[in-house]
Amino acid sequence: MGGKVSGFNALITTPVGKLLNDTSKFLSYVLRHEPQTIGLILDGEGWADIAALIEGAKRAGKTIDRDLIQQVVNTSDKKRFTISEDGLRIRAVQGHSAKNVAITYPEKVPPEFLYHGTATRFLGSILKEGLRPGERQHVHLSEDVKTATAVGQRYGKPVVLKIEALRMHQQGFKFFQAENGVWLVCGVPAEQLRSANQLFT
Ligand code: HQG
């Protein structure tokens, strides 16, 4: 899907902003989705060796170094990446589609409501089938309407669904929260969405 490669909201009009944005997209691609395209291996928790990442990028014709990686990590608007304490490894904190990655997220009790931003053109299907993770491993939910609207905007005219998260949790659904605050759930059944009956456009 179009949102598979993630952007970066820095000042992309400046050369430095553009470099950071391009590198962020590249890191999202290899650390979430297609590590094998540069011969990189992610472990089950999503970690990649930074030296191997730099080498793999070089072989693919992309010059990146530790400083640039660190800058992207520090300035990522959504805090997409983390570097390990020993400084040797990096991972994307959520959003994976790579099949061998299954990050152990802390299970948490969600707030009463969470929000999912999507495009109006997906609504018919979503209200029929519920929210599905698609190519990713989880459905992503936000704590506020503003963030969810920005997420939905990536695919067209945004619409935000209000999810009765606490009620779902009480019914046995497991909720997780990634380090960057994004809430994750395996899916949201259509009944939950219809009963909440709350749309923000
Ligand atoms: C939609 C960004 C039809 C779903 C964001 C979404 C997020 C359905 C799209 C993160 C459906 C999947 C994830 C159904 C779900 N029928 N469409 N039954 N169920 N959909 O990109 O949540 O910038 O995989 O509504 O901030 O948009 O990458 O998920 O529109 O946290 O760091 O299918 O990506 O972060 O799209 O975004 P995505 P998402 P980054």
Walk me through what this model shows.
This protein is α+β, with helices and mostly antiparallel strands and about 200 residues long. It folds into two domains: about 5-90, Orthogonal Bundle (Arc Repressor Mutant, subunit A); about 115-200, ADP-ribosylation fold (Alpha-Beta Barrel), CATH 3.20.170. It has seven helices and nine strands; from the N terminus they run αβααβββαβαβαββαβ. It has helices spanning about 15-35, 50-60, 65-75, 125-130, 145-155, 165-170, 190-195; strands at about 50, 80-85, 90, 115-120, 140, 160-165, 175, 185, 200. A hairpin with a 5-residue loop joins strand 2 (about 80-85) and strand 3 (about 90). The longest helix has 19 residues, at about 15-35. The chain is globular, with a radius of gyration of 18 Å. The structure holds ligand HQG. The site of ligand HQG has 21 residues, from strand 4 and helix 4.
Helical/strand content category = alpha+beta
Beta content comes to 15-25%
Instruction: Please bin the fraction of helical residues.
Output: 25-40%
Identify the strand order in the major beta sheet: 1-3-2
| Major sheet details | 3 strands, antiparallel
Q: Fill in the CATH topology of the largest domain.
A: ADP-ribosylation fold
Helix and strand string, N-terminal first? HEHHEEEHEHEHEEHE
Shape: globular
Overall pLDDT? 91
Task: Identify the CATH class of the largest domain.
Answer: Alpha Beta
Weakly predicted, low-confidence segments: 1-5
CATH architecture assignment name of the largest domain: Alpha-Beta Barrel
